[in-house]
TrEMBL record:
Residues 616-708 are annotated as: Disordered. PROSITE patterns: PROTEIN_KINASE_DOM. The lineage of its organism: Eukaryota, Viridiplantae, Streptophyta, Embryophyta, Tracheophyta. Residues 616-631, 665-675 have a biased composition (Basic and acidic residues). Residues 731-1010 form the Protein kinase domain. Keywords: ATP-binding, Leucine-rich repeat, Membrane, Nucleotide-binding, Phosphoprotein, Receptor, Repeat, Signal, Transmembrane, Transmembrane helix. This is Protein kinase domain-containing protein. GO terms for molecular function: ATP binding; protein kinase activity. InterPro entries: Inactive_SerThr-Kinase_ABA, Kinase-like_dom_sf, Leu-rich_rpt, Leu-rich_rpt_typical-subtyp, LRR_dom_sf, LRR_N_plant-typ, Prot_kinase_dom, Ser-Thr/Tyr_kinase_cat_dom.
């Protein structure tokens, strides 16, 4: 009977925190008709259980077969928001009377049973937020009454089941947050009752075809969300929209214009989000009266701001190409609450355009070219909680009125030309400061009012502010972030900062602060940066135990670390006793000279043997990843008696080598042409950072890092989320990743476990310090999901001490994944993964090309790094040519030619420099690598002799044998498998990218086609 089936289900429940089932589901509590009596969550009638309502009980366990599936008259099964797991039992499909099924927010695994097609009475069906995977059975044709279907938040894949389109009573369909692929079925337009369609966060591709969209949007549909997919093409006109209230199309690859009908008076839209696409054109006016949320961020929109904005409350136009001044804002309605215009090209003076926007809560106009003083009227906006004016050309002093604001919690004005002091002093002149901020003269018989400021984030960094840091700043008692770095502040660090009990991030770096560090700083501090000042005295022990030395050095020559021998960062060299006698010193010097002569002789002997052996052997080598130290300082001679590791690359004359890529996960150094052989030479070096040179000898790993007491170079960090000193970088265990025309790349692991990729630029390649710094900061601020940003750079006093620093990604590069054959670390890429990576590359390139007008300049498979298990592609080494002299740039382009990525027009230029079209050529070569699984520098033998990759592919295609070039990992080693869908199109796109310069498509066209 039903009671025994439920008792069996109870036995499968291993966790019942509330005890409601264990205490109430008792066998002897059954009425004469056989119904469970007073069992929690059980509804029973005439001896048959008709409802189970056990949601939100945090139950654990599994649903075993022969339990709930036996309740033949069950109409409602509500088990949502528990922790039930295991596979869904097949016999749940036998509940033919079931109308309401809710198994959401559990831990069910496996696939959806095809037997669920038997749920022919179901009205509400939810399996959301589980761990289900695989294709969804085409089981919905019999569910004619289904009105609400929710499969979101799983890992379901394959196409959208066709039978869904037969559900005439379906009102809400949610398939979001899965891995569905393919196109949106055209038959979706037959769902006449559909009000909500949510397909976001999948892998759907294709277009929103006009013939499909016309029927779909002309129905009852009110909410459409297809964001974060792989959709492309132009948007339909939407002139047929009658009921659509919410339209979310963001994070796709749509091109063309924003359909005017969406913004017209007739539109009933309340929310429109088309951000993160490739839309272009201008926005004339927004006449839609119902529109409240308008997000068009991260496209290629241009022109001036729209002259009308309707009744919008939230507007995001950030990261586009809008230009002109902001005067038009004064004609916008006062309904605006959030306005983001950051990352555009607005200029002119920032005046009082926003004074009438009394509801405004958030204003961001950072990263533009606005000039003039900061208007004090902004501080009069009583609801303004966040104001970001960073990275403009604003000048003058900071109005003190901003510290009067009763609502402002975030105030950022970094990277401008502001002068003067911090006006909190003048603001507090009439108000006493609590606690020790009170001066003896401020005490009176009447206690003054205590000031409270809501400010939580105050960022005034990288301006020209001067004077002392006022002790009254401690009255901003709610501060969480205080950044005053990169100014001209003098004097000491106020001890009153200790009163900021919520402060988590304090940055006072790169000023002219003197004196001692206060003994007490807030216990809430999580990050501290006092570097590049003139502080002195002992570092308080309580700070030294909480923060690394990188919080205090470089700079601050007078600081003393407790327990060290003097001021400056403590030396890591071993302490020694008395000095050596002159006789002993002379003996050691003589021994070192003799050892050096012997080493050179051995080197010459090994060199001659290697030359002879090379004629009969291939030159395949692997990178030896041995931990050693990154040493700042001149190269030191090898110790007498120490073992020396020699590589052929170091013994051969430098001019004879063709440098390879140094990038993460790729140790290719040269391309050696051997007929019929795919060769890759890999560095076998174990070297220290300053042992760079054409013929430098490599040393065995040092036991102690050599670190001078105070380094003369400058370390500039472009991201304050992690800070470190040159000394910490110097002593970090490291591995050689590879070499290139730029220099050598290393993986360095800091003490906190964070891994960095450090590129050591070859001597003579870098521009002068001013130009180098200007360019590094310019493109170091680039932020995009498919671009790996710079962490910082180091400029040393010697010519060969130039480092470029970024994060290290452990999932390798595209080159690793495509061309590894022996000793493979990674499984072969599936076709769908290759396409997604290619799309990611175009997104990163599109951002560089259209937003910043910057060519990558060094695009190759080894510079496409993969991040995380989802293998998100991120471009590294972008625009590094801008840091180099013309000779260095020419050397880089020569290297690209040797590796097979150089555009033909650069080979003949007297002064070659990277271009946008040259990037397209390199991307075409990468697409060929993706299709063929071969490297760009591979030399392939055939009937016509040895050819490189591009010539080989063009030859096969011209002879009608294109499929013969497809990677065997995709079509089988006997080429007996059907080629993946779309591979022909990708190959055709690759060939179009390597056409003559004038015939190559732009990155926008490439992205759209892909």
């Amino acid at each position: 009977d039903d009671a025994s089936a439920l008792l069996k289900f109870r036995d499968g429940v291993t966790g019942d925190p509330g005890g409601l089932i264990r205490s109430s589901w008792v066998a002897n509590r059954v009425d004469p008709s056989g119904c469970p009596s007073q069992w929690h969550g059980v509804v029973c009638s005439n001896g048959s259980v008709t409802g189970l309502a056990l949601g939100d009980l945090q139950l654990q366990g599994e649903i075993s077969p022969g339990t709930i599936g036996r309740l033949s008259r069950l109409t409602s099964l509500l088990l949502g928001n528990n922790s039930l797991g295991g596979k869904l039992p097949e016999d749940l499909g036998e509940l033919h009377a079931l109308q309401f099924l809710d198994l959401s927010a559990n831990q069910f695994v496996g696939s959806i049973p095809s037997s669920f097609a038997g749920l022919r009475s179901v009205v509400n069906f939810s399996l959301s937020s589980n761990k289900l995977e695989g294709p969804v059975p085409d089981m919905f044709a019999s569910m004619v009454r289904l009105g609400d279907l929710d499969l979101s938040g799983n890992s379901l894949s394959g196409g959208i089941p066709p039978s869904i389109t037969s559900l005439r009573q379906l009102v809400s369909l949610n398939l979001s947050w899965n891995a569905f692929s393919g196109v949106i079925p055209r038959e979706m337009s037959s769902l006449e009752s559909l009000h909500r369609l949510d397909l976001r966060q999948n892998r759907l591709s294709g277009e929103l075809a006009p013939e499909n969209a016309a029927s779909l949007f002309a129905s009852e549909l009110q909410i459409l969300d297809v964001s974060s997919n792989l959709l492309s093409g132009k948007l339909p006109s939407f002139s047929f929209v009658f009921s659509l209230r919410v339209l979310r199309l963001q994070n796709n690859s749509f091109v063309g214009y924003v359909p005017p009908a969406l913004l017209a008076t007739e539109s009933v839209l309340e929310e429109l989000d088309i951000s993160f696409n490739n839309l272009s054109g201008t926005i004339g006016m927004v006449a839609a009266t119902s529109l409240s949320i308008l997000r068009l961020a991260s496209n290629n929109l241009s022109g001036t701001l729209p002259i009308r904005l309707g009744s919008c409350a939230i507007v995001d136009f950030s990261n586009n190409n809008f230009s002109g001044n902001l005067d038009v804002i004064k004609d916008w309605r006062d309904s605006l609450q959030v306005l983001d215009l950051s990352g555009n090209s607005f200029d002119g003076v920032l005046s009082n355009e926003t004074a009438h926007l009394l509801r405004l809560m958030y204003l961001n106009v950072s990263h533009n070219a606005l000039s003039g003083p900061i208007p004090g009227t902004l501080a009069s906006l009583r609801k303004l909680t966040a104001l970001d004016l960073s990275s403009n050309n604003l000048d003058g002093e900071i109005p003190g009125d901003f510290f009067h604001s009763p609502s402002l919690t975030i105030f950022r004005v970094a990277n401008n030309n502001l002068v003067g002091g911090i006006p909190v002093v003048s603001f507090l002149s009439s108000s006493a400061i609590p606690g020790e901020l009170l001066s003896p003269t401020s005490i009176s018989s009447t206690p003054p009012a205590v000031l409270f400021s809501p400010l939580q984030v105050l960022d005034l960094s990288f301006n020209s502010l001067n004077g002392s840091i006022p002790q009254e700043i401690a009255s901003l008692s709610g501060l969480v972030v205080l950044n005053l770095g990169g100014n001209d502040f003098t004097g000491g660090i106020p001890s009153q900062l200790s009163r900021l009990r919520y402060l988590e991030n304090l940055d006072l770096s790169s000023n002219h602060l003197r004196g001692r560090i206060p003994a007490q700083l807030p216990s809430s501090l999580q990050t501290l940066n006092l570097t590049n000042n003139d502080l002195s005295g002992h570092i308080p022990a309580n700070l030294l135990s909480r923060f690394p030395l990188s919080s205090f050095f470089p700079g601050n020559a007078g600081l003393v670390v407790p327990g060290s021998s003097g001021a400056g960062i403590p030396s890591l060299r071993s302490r020694r006793g008395k000095g050596l006698s002159s006789a002993v010193k002379a003996g050691l010097i003589g021994g070192c000279v003799a050892a050096t002569v012997i080493i050179i002789a051995i080197a010459l002997f090994v060199y001659s043997r290697l030359q002879a052996a090379d004629k009969n052997s291939s030159d395949e080598r692997d990178v030896v990843k041995s931990p050693h130290r990154l040493e700042f300082g001149p190269p030191s001679a090898a110790k007498a008696g120490a073992s020396v590791s020699l590589s052929r690359e170091q013994l051969l004359p430098q001019q004879g080598n063709v440098p390879g890529s140094p990038e993460q996960g790729d140790g290719r150094d040269t391309k050696k042409k051997q007929e019929g052989l795919l060769t890759r030479k890999r560095s076998k070096s174990r070297t220290t950072l300053l042992d760079e040179g054409p013929s430098s000898l490599e040393r065995a790993p040092s036991q102690k890092a050599r670190s001078p007491d105070k380094l003369a170079g400058d370390l500039f960090l472009l991201d304050s989320s992690i800070v470190f000193t040159p000394e910490e970088l110097s002593s970090a265990p490291a591995e050689v990743l590879g070499r290139s025309s730029h220099g050598t790349s290393y993986k360095a692991t800091l003490e906190n476990g964070h891994m960095l990729a450090v590129k050591w630029l070859r001597e003579g390649l870098a521009k002068n310090k001013a130009a180098f710094t200007r360019e590094a900061r310019k493109f170091g601020s680039i932020q995009h999901p498919n671009i790996l940003p710079l962490r910082g750079y180091y400029w040393g006093p010697r010519e060969h001490e130039k480092l470029v620093i970024s994060d290290y990604l452990s999932f390798g590069s595209l080159s690793d994944r495509l061309t590894e054959r022996s000793g493979r670390r990674f499984p072969p890429l599936e076709w769908s993964q290759r396409v997604r990576i290619a799309v990611d590359i175009t997104r990163g390139l599109s951002y560089l090309h259209t937003k910043h007008k910057l060519p990558h300049g060094n695009l190759k498979a080894s510079n496409v790094l993969l991040d995380g298990s989802s293998l998100v592609a991120r471009l590294s080494d972008y625009s590094i040519h801008r840091l180099m002299t013309p000779a260095g740039t020419a050397n880089q382009i020569l290297n690209a030619g040797a590796l097979g990525y150089r555009a033909p027009e650069l080979a003949h230029a007297r002064k070659p420099k990277p271009t946008l079209k040259a990037d397209i050529y390199a991307f075409g070569v990468i697409l060929m690598e993706i299709v063929t699984g071969k490297g760009a520098g591979d030399i392939i033998s055939g009937n016509s002799g040895a050819v490189d990759l591009t010539d080989w592919v063009k030859l096969l295609v011209s002879e009608g044998r294109g499929p013969e070039c497809y990677d065997q990992a995709l079509v089988g080693y006997d080429r007996d498998q059907e080629p993946p869908q779309g591979i022909d199109d990708v190959l055709a796109l690759a060939l179009s990218c390597i056409l003559e310069r004038s015939e190559r498509p732009s990155i926008k066209v490439v992205q759209e086609d892909l």
